[in-house]
Amino acid sequence: MPDRWRGLIIDESTPEDAVKILGQPKKDALSKMDAPPVGHWLSKIRKEKVFRMLEFSKPEGIDKASLFFYEGKLVSILLDVKKGIEPVGMANIYGIPFEPIFGQADVAFSPRDFERNQGKVYAKTFPTIYYLAGISEKTFILAGVSNVPSFGGALARSAGVPDKPGSLPGKVEGVQIVSRKLENRDGADALK
Fold this sequence. Notes:
Elements (H helix, E strand, L loop, with lengths): L3 E2 L2 E2 L5 H8 L4 E5 L11 H6 L2 E7 L6 E7 L2 E13 L4 H5 L3 E4 L2 H6 L4 E4 L2 E4 L5 E7 L3 E8 L4 H8 L12 E9 L13
Antiparallel strand pairs: 1-2, 3-4, 4-5, 5-6, 6-12, 7-10, 8-9, 10-11, 11-12
C-alpha cells in the first residue's frame, strides 16, 4: 500500500504507534522538514510548519527511518535503504506507477542525454542520480536512485551509449512517502 510502512499509516498513526511498533527512537526532535528531498509541492509547508521527527536506526532491512508527525499524525516517512531496490520493482511494491524525474542541472548541462516529448523529459542515458515519483490518492512517493555503474558501464555512458529502452538503471537508496494533505495548493482556486 502506498500510504503505509510496517503498519504505520500516513494521516492516521501517532508517535506512540511508532514507538510501539519500532521501539524507542534514536532521536526525537522538532524539525522544519528541511531534510527530506520532497520537491516543490512542499516548499511553502516546510517554511511555515514545525514537525516532530522520530528517527529509528536500523529497523529490519533499513539503515535509518525518519518519521515526521504534524498535529500528532504521521505525515511523512523517509527510509534510507542502502541495500538498494531495483527501480522497476517500485511499481510492484507500492501498486502505483512511477516515472523518472531528472534534476534541472542534469537536463541543462547534458541536453543531448535527454529528449522532450509532449511536455515530458525522457532520458537517452540516465544520470548518476535521478528520482522516481509515484502519486496515489493519499500520498506522494519519491525514490532516490543511485546509478553509479561499474567501471565498464561508466565508460559506455561517457561514450554516449544509451541504456536499454524501457529499463531503469541503478538502485533505489532512499524512499519518502508524503501525505498529500501537505500539498502546496496556493492559487488552486484561481484555476477552478
